[in-house]
Amino acid sequence: MQETPSQTQQNKLHILKHAGIITSITLMSRILGYIRDQRITFLLGTLPASDAYTVAYRIPNLLRRLVAEGAMTASFIPVFTHLLKEEGREKVWEFANKFFWTMAFVLTGLAVVGVIFSPFFIDLVASGFRHKPSYDLTVHLNRIIFPYVFFIGLAALASAILNSFHSFAVPAATPIALNISIITLSFFAFRFQEPAVALAIGVVLGGVLQLLIQIPQLRKHGMTFQFGVSLTNPSIRKVARLMFPVFFGVGVAQLGLIIDTQFASYLFAGAQASLYVADRVMELILGGYAISVATVILPMLSQQAAENQIADMRKTLAFSLRIVSFIAIPSSVGLIVLRRPIIEVLFQHGKFNAQSTAITAPPLMYFAFGLCAFALIKVVVPAFYSLHDTKTPVKIAAAALSFNLISNFLVSRPEHVEGALKYVFGFFAGIANTLHIPSLQNGGLALSTSLAAYINLSILVYVFQKRHGRFVTREVLVSVFKAALSSLAMGLVCWYVIRIPGWYANQHFAKQVITFTITLGLGTAAYFGLAMIMRCPELEEVWGIATRRKVKK
Known about the structure:
There is one protein chain. By secondary structure, the chain is mostly helical. It has one domain (5-470). 81% of the residues lie in helices and 0% in strands. Helix 11 (252-264) packs parallel to helix 17 (391-411) and helix 12 (271-306) packs antiparallel against helix 13 (310-337). The radius of gyration is 23 Å and the shape is globular.
């Protein structure tokens, strides 16, 4: 049974309403996340201690994204939703309780292994550190942080259960607890011989809080936490079967970051920190809206898949692609054009100096280039998971990851690559200099990750449409074109205004903040103004998040 126009309308409103709730909460989280990152860069800059903290945190954080929030969430929600529909609440809570304690058992083992074999994990992702002075500190910090995997894994499971009941507010607020914890501990860093240790302790305490704040909501929905570990429960085994391939395919961007970490470990001091800061700036945009939409549509797609409503899934995907592109495209252009002012205003304080900004700007530009791909992958991949197809994204991610690995080998010798590009495309070299396009440097690693993401996205869309029908319709393509045209106007305005002599450059910090804000405001006005002239329907749809007005059919 296909949905009626009114049902389509309800689904649009459902996505916008809950994405709006998550975005509002996530915005608060991202503000605190910025304060957290600003405190980290203030204390550590791009010194060797900063590289040590970045690598030490990246390993358990990657496991969090792949095992907990990625593989577990993507595999658990479809099974939980199907069981709730077919078996009822009694069976579904029996499954949830057993899965919780089984997950706790597995995560305990993972945390213990991580603490004991921390040097092995460091060598695995950053072997270039072994002969650097920061190696021992990296291992020490990694051992402090690794128990975070246990707490954040269970917190991610709690979020998945609540999301299955379309309860998004509390799960979306959990990162706030992590940010507050790290910020608080950063002010006690002076009590430690190495300030990075205080930050590492803050990570673990934040994980504890992320789990605890969700328990009252779980109990409210009916979870009893009755103890019971089971490796034979059919539903648990089904989730495990789905998790295994998703672990490798949940996101080429995350695995690409580990590859970047390995190659960056052989580069100059501060390379790791520069990639981390650039990634955090990009995540500010990516997490603000794209992840919010992806969080909302997975339960909806799972329900539509359970009812075999493939046509409705295509409508949901098309709508999600339009509204995410409407935000991601101008964000990408803005980050590229204003990369240096963004870093200067947000992070150039304390030990994060002008040299730190200089080495962070190239990776931010190239990460920003891939922002649209990163965002849309988070919308398309859940469509496969909702159909219990986790193998296809794995194969596609493996192909993209192979490209990332090969391209990283190439850009590790940027002088050769740049020489070849100038020889082949010499005509465009002057344009590149005029636009202040940076050389590859450590930015080449970010560029490889972005290109791999576009390859990943293209194959995902092609395969899904070949199997289940087209969702990248003419309406979607027209929407993307209008967003790109409006973004071009925004980029030109920002590029011109920020370079007016005496406007931003060589000003004191307070004036830089004011002029940067005005520049960004003028660019945003240009984007929405042209979008309004072209009558982009996404304006009303995105505005509906704040006003709760109905969108057009």
